[in-house]
User: Fold Beta-1,3-glucosyltransferase from Grus japonensis.
Amino acid sequence: MSREPGCNRWLLFAACVHLFFLLPPLRTRAFAVSVVPEGAEDDTELPVLQKSEKSGTISKISRELKEIVFIIQSQSNSFHSKRAEDLKRDILKQAADLGKELPTVLLIHQMDGHEGAWTILPLMRDFSVTYGRNSSWIFFCEEDTRIQVVKLLETLGRFDGSKEWFLGKALYDEESTIIHHYAFAENPTVFKFPDFAAGWALSIPLVNKLAKKLKSEPLKSDFTIDLKHEGEDSSHSAPAPAWGPSHGRQSFTNFSNIALYVWQKGEGPHLTPVPEFCTDDVNSYNVDRCATTFSNFLPLCGEPLKKEDVFVAVKTCQKFHGDRIPVVKQTWEREAALIEYYSDYADISIPTIDLGIPNTDRGHCGKTFAILERFLNHSSPRTPWLVIVDDDTLISIFRLRKLLSCYDPNEPVFLGERYGYGLGTGGYSYITGGGGMVFSRIAVQKLLASKCRCYSMDAPDDMVLGMCFSGLGIPITHSPLFHQARPMDYPKDYLSHQIPVSFHKHWNIDPVKVYFTWLAPNTEESFNGKKVGYNREDL
Assistant:
């Protein structure tokens, strides 16, 4: 009796072993799950599943990424083209880490045959023909935009790419000082336009629609970007009213123009605000929610230029000696080591230099070319940079010296806020004079060695210069840190991610207060070059 339990156990064990070897191998997932006790982890099979799911996710992301065309709004200047190439490499590296299907990444300045490519709309037909069938989105960004590719895919994935979408970070005017469309004059906050720095996107159906319209109704020769009140006013004429003409000029801030063209007087979509399109700095506490961020630092490439490396020319006339020149002397003159005032009257108390050019109500082309001749023939050849400003320009020479550390003075550089004229029909870009025009010495040498000159003494100097440099094949270099208007004339969110170099006009403001609020260097900024918190009151 005592051996029966043991015997039975041996018989049971033998039967189990026999049954085990008779059965085929059981390798199905169902079996594996069935033998794992509840609450236990299957260490062998779970990683295989995770790998499979991850592979599927990467495959999906890869397909979606292939359907996005990235457009970097780059420039041909060596400093800017390198920054754009760095961004392109970063986008492609992120894509390579996700799968084999790499997206198309294009640089605006490499697109041949489009002088006005930076205005975007002239490229729509090319985009439609090339990418209209196999892509879902065209995503635009600036060279300093930083993109989290996976987060961008997740963001765009919320929108049906088969429908017409216009996506971006929304800007709007708080007052009717910058005219975008008369339909919004009474309530300008209704009209939203994208902040390019945050990136913005058009769905392919909308691109195709715009291309079709542009084919049937080509852009006119007086096609205007971002209608502003500045017109052709300068320091030598009375301030233009806020509702003045634009004279067919095209501003670099073509955010609103694109929004207007897309809107099509109510026939097209308004801008859809996307909170994941950000202009927060990459180190901001909000960065986790952002698909894009923006570099909020003033560019600095080594040591700032010496004060003696920048020659400053101020255009003025006798009637403004008593009110505008004192503002310059109270504010930014102390930042300049080399500065001269050019007028139609020699006033030793300032002092001003009479170039022998009579004052004109508009244009001042004759005076500007005389300044260029004087810089080339009378200033030290060791001074590599010239900046020409109006007497109502407010500028930070301190910041300009830092900015110019990034540009090669051995290249022909013409720098400032870019406008354009007639770009819809092959016109030209130029640097608007009110925000300040910066020239490398070699650019002045090439210009004056050519036969390009003013067609009249009162021709608009900035536009003639743009036409001349365009004919010479010297590109205009744009910096959004130069401003043709007052701080109040720009959306607050647009200025919030800038460290500005200049503003223009004294009209209806306290210019000294504007300078010390927006442009005066402070100890912290001087120390580390980073953006600081200014006490910017409503001006």
Observations:
- The longest strand covers residues 68-73.
- The CA atoms of residues 227 and 333 lie 32 Å apart.
- The chain has 16 helices and 22 strands.
- The two ends are 107 Å apart (CA to CA).
